[in-house]
Amino acid sequence: MSNHLSHYDGADPAHAEGNAAPETPESWAGLPREEFAFPGPLRDRLVAAILEGRKTSGTALLTEYLSAGETLPRAGDRSVLVDSGNRPVAVLERTAVRIARLADVDEAHVHAEGEGYEDVAAWRAAHEEFWDSPAYIEVLSDPTFRVDDDTLVVLDQFRVCERRPDTGA
Fold it and tell me: Which part of the chain is the ASCH domain (predicted)?
């Protein structure tokens, strides 16, 4: 699912209530936030997959960056991964970034996303469902937007380079 959404600041109160934020390492100050999907169960699963090392790549729509006026990520960029309660849990470092047509996303990228899709078709169906959702269309501020084979996507690879001590090994 989309791992951009850095301009989305909302939190799901059901996931944030009563969760005091532990101390954030000073070295993380000033790094941009990295949010996967919207707060809730999907983000929780994606963050867990990243922390477990199963998820090492992500996909975002190029139009999301363009509509937000944000710079595209580059290899070497670092960001702070946040969970559904908007708590920082790890620092990610981009190791590779490329732009491709949606129709050209390959099995290697799908496998590195670590979400258990059987093939590219299953991966694409799940991603299209997310990108066509009313909540995502609202983020884009373009009610006419639709995904097709020629939709440009930002494919990135990353690694966890630091984790909060309280998130496990």
Answer: 36-144
Please report, as a single letter, which amino acid is at residue 120.
V
b/e per residue, 101-114, with b = 16+ CB within 10 A? ebeebeeebbbbbb
Q: How far apart are CA 131 and CA 136, in angstroms?
A: 6
- Structural contact between residues 109 and 95, judged by C-beta atoms closer than 8 angstroms: no
How confident is the model over 66-121, as pLDDT tens digits? 988 999 999 999 999 999 999 999 999 999 999 999 999 999 999 999 999 999 99
Show the tokens assigned to 80. 């702070």
Q: Please, what are the domains in the chain?
A: 13-167 (3.10.400.10)
CA nearest 159: which of 79, 46, 60? Answer: 79
